[in-house]
Amino acid sequence: MPTLKEIMTKDVETCTLLDNVYEVAVKMKEYNVGSIPIVDGDKIVGVITDRDIVTRCIAEKHPASSKVEDIMSKELITIAPDSDAAQAAQLMAYKQIRRLPVVEGGRLVGVVSIGDFAIRESLEAQASIALEEISESHFSNKPC
Q1: Arithmetic mean of pLDDT, 87-106
Q2: Does 16 score more than 50 pLDDT?
Q3: DSSP string of the chain, one letter each residue
């Protein structure tokens, strides 16, 4: 089983606590991503997702100029780069997340996503299981 160092995305776009929600949204559009880690120097301090923008900013009628610190998820779920892909997939399924920051000594070194598993034939089953468990939780017992 490969380690996350081998499959993670290493060149990760980030924003800082000085950025506002609009700047994060523009970066998400520019790089076609749904999640941006928030860093203070090289230390990860939060993550803001497209869902965070919708539920914590737009739905609560906050302006796009709101500080990312007010909108981002501060309770981080991270994993070490020497962890194996199966551990990451299991954690992602358990925590119901599609992207997982890879952190070493508090420093962001990459991100692993379900897509990273899916592009490797040997890890496709892990991606499928994680996505199935994430999807089941999101769609069970919730009215539209």
Answers
A1: 92
A2: yes
A3: --BHHHHSB-S---EETT-BHHHHHHHHHHHT-SEEEEEETTEEEEEEEHHHIIIIIITTT--TTSBHHHHSB-S---B-TTSBHHHHHHHHHHHT-SEEEEEETTEEEEEEEHHHHHTSGGGHHHHHHHHHHHHHHHHTT---
pTM above 0.90, yes or no: no
Query: End-to-end CA distance of the chain, in Å?
Result: 39
Q: Is the confidence at residue 78, as pLDDT, over 80? A: yes
CATH number of 4-139, picked from 1.20.120.790, 3.40.190.10, 3.10.580.10, 3.40.50.150: 3.10.580.10
pLDDT at 118: 67
